[in-house]
Write a structure and sequence with these properties.
The chain has helices at 6-20, 25-32, 36-48, 69-72, 77-87, 103-111, 125-131, 156-162, 188-199, 237-243; strands at 22-24, 53-55, 58-60, 96-99, 119-122, 138-141, 146-147, 152-153, 169-171, 176-178, 182-185, 204-207, 219-222, 229-232, 249-252. By secondary structure, the chain is α/β, with parallel strands linked by helices. The strands form four sheets. Strands 6-5-4-9-12-14-15 form a seven-stranded parallel sheet, with helices on both faces.
């Protein structure tokens, strides 16, 4: 006999997803005192309601809330600030770097040093505006039709412009990361733009907030082993342990 009603199980599963991000049906069945078949039915229901993402044998949490870049700054702002500060340690003199449209990258743009002869390329007007008064940082804004949800240009004009560059370091924004499929985007065109930007880079860096860990977007664009730097918080045990096994430098932030 089940220990919980379906409604109670739904809420317990959603609560567990908030703290664990990825759950397997077998583990849930043991924890909730029911069968795997029952848990699979529960997960199908929750996925159909748009409350989680189904994967083989379990479920992932949804990607975090979206909005404009300015609106996204309201989410996990302290964590994003710590990621931006940590990212300064991998930026070297006279590099050409790419800053993908991202609220965390907006914070990074504001922190970039003036005295190391940087060239910054971005597809985000909000990021470019933060660099407008920084006369010692050469800033190149990629043009094209602006996507309101993404906060930058990701159309064919912007994609073709990427072919003019070879970046020393590319900061790619992500909507989610899953140990099953790697880094994902919410929008198809954005995923393809990110894939092309990464292909033009000597090194790729990802700044990952905790809420994007084991969160699955619909459009995979980069495998986990395709990056050179992973920056995350000290609380993110799942992603730290996973990337420690790869040929990737894992940089842990210091939260205030």
């Amino acid at each position: 006999m089940d220990n919980y009603s379906p409604e109670e199980r739904y809420q317990l599963i959603l609560n567990l997803l908030k703290s664990h991000s990825k759950l397997m049906a077998a583990d849930l069945a043991t924890r909730l005192g029911t069968t795997e078949a029952t848990i699979r039915r529960d997960l199908r229901f929750l996925a159909n309601e748009g409350l989680c993402k189904r994967i083989h044998g379990g479920a992932l949490s949804l990607v975090p809330p979206t909005g404009t870049q300015e609106q996204r700054l309201e989410y996990s702002n302290n964590e994003k600030q710590a990621l931006a500060i940590a990212a300064l340690s991998i930026i070297k003199k006279e590099q050409v770097i790419f800053l993908d449209a991202s609220s965390t990258h907006m914070l990074l743009a504001s922190l970039l040093p003036n005295n190391i002869n940087l060239t910054v390329v971005t597809n985000s007007p909000a990021i470019a505006s933060r660099l407008l008064e920084r006369q010692h940082i050469r800033t190149i804004l990629i043009g094209g039709e602006l996507n309101y949800a993404v906060g930058g240009a990701i159309d064919i004009t912007a994609a073709e412009a990427l072919n003019k560059f070879r970046f020393d370091l590319c900061f790619i924004g992500i909507c989610g990361w899953s140990s099953d499929v790697g880094f994902t985007a919410i929008h198809y065109q954005d995923g393809e733009f990110k894939r092309l930007a990464a292909s033009r880079a000597g090194a790729i860096a990802i700044l990952c907030t905790d809420d994007k860990t084991e969160a699955l977007g619909p459009y995979p664009f980069l495998p986990s082993d395709g990056i050179d730097y992973l920056l995350c918080s000290p609380n993110n045990e799942a992603i730290k342990s996973y990337f420690a096994k790869l040929d990737c430098s894992v940089i842990i932030t210091k939260l205030s």
